[in-house]
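REQUEST
  id: r-88c1
  op: predict_structure
  target: Inositol-tetrakisphosphate 1-kinase
  payload:
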Amino acid sequence: MRGEIAYIKEKEDEEVQVRNEEENKMVAAVQRKYTSVVGGGFPPSPIKVVVVGYALTSKKTKSFLQPKLEGLARHKGILFVAIDQSRPLSDQGPFDVVLHKLSGKEWRCVIEDYRQTHPEVTVLDPPYAIQQVHNRQSMLQDVTDLNLSDAYGKVGVPKQLVFDKDPSSILDAGEPGWTEVTHWYVAKPLVAKSHELSLAYDEYSLQELEPPLVLQEFINHGGVLFKVYIVGEAIKVVRRFSLPDVSNCDLSKNAGVYHFPRVSCAAASADEADLDPCVAELPPRPLLERLARELRRRLGLRLFNLDIIREHGTRDRYYVIDINYFPGYGKMPEYEHIFTDFLLSLVQRE
Ligand SMILES: O=P(O)(O)O[C@@H]1[C@@H](OP(=O)(O)O)[C@H](OP(=O)(O)O)[C@H](O)[C@H](OP(=O)(O)O)[C@H]1OP(=O)(O)O
Ligand SMILES: Nc1ncnc2c1ncn2[C@@H]1O[C@H](COP(=O)(O)OP(=O)(O)O)[C@@H](O)[C@H]1O
Ligand SMILES: [Mg+2]
Ligand SMILES: [Mg+2]
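RESPONSE
  id: r-88c1
  status: 200
  body:
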């Protein structure tokens, strides 16, 4: 029996070794292909291939690693290699960059350990920074602290309270700051991974909601939100349809809680829609650039997006309502060019 186990173990080790050798050969072959001679007559200048290891869910791999991205990347000397989660990360590669979006403590430890032992590799992004936006309580803290206000506008977050028990206790608690809030509440699960959203029309129905959750003031914004995609220093903004405005008239006609299983996922692009120009106007570029630059630094993230709304009836009152790590870049216009340029910018190639 013991002999059998030893035999199986030996076989497995052999297979792993063969796989490692194959992978190393593949990387070396691509390295050779891209090690070209630049500028005839000058000494040869090798251009190194950039190897990007990725650990993504199959859904994410499909939406992000589209043939057009892989093709353009190959053309620019970037090779994407799937990370095998069943093998030690240090035995794979060597990588110049590691891209990852996987959940769980075990993965966080693997990637944190790898960051410590491989400081030469750019890991996008550090697990501790990702953690901050996984929880809706800490997600928007840096936006609050930033308190951005300049000639182009003011950026804040909706008033919010966190409940780990019955949210109707808000009434008993007489929470400061909530007395002036109109009685429209958006309830979101504390864990950002869950996307159910509920709209409560009066504080008495709050007891129907299931904690732990974040209760936010509902901000009327003309039914359109701005998705601001950030890839390093690059920014792209798109419009999406969002929840419609609510009025005091709705308040008198409605009661209770309305549940939306995945409102943001179903939201269609509003870029081509015939919208009221006041609602459609994109946030000023200088404001977004400053916001993105500050948040990149404060959050310690390079790959994320922001959901921003503008209070209806104002020209310059903006609210960040959501921050997502490594969002659906496949929906960002020109992401192939932006992403490949970004990857190249991370690596010294010559
Ligand atoms: O799948 P997609 O393209 O809708 O991307 C989701 C994002 O959509 P967006 O790019 O903002 O339109 C989505 O953003 P929202 O939270 O819907 O604003 C999340 O980032 C989601 O990740 P997770 O499920 O929270 O881990 C993202 O899902 P994953 O692809 O990361 O699973
Ligand atoms: N405070 C708010 N005021 C008005 N609408 C909101 C507010 N918060 C969220 N929404 C609406 O709900 C949607 C989902 O909320 P969001 O915080 O982006 O969560 P998710 O992570 O599921 O995308 C937003 O895209 C927007 O349409
Ligand atoms: Mg969102
Ligand atoms: Mg989100």
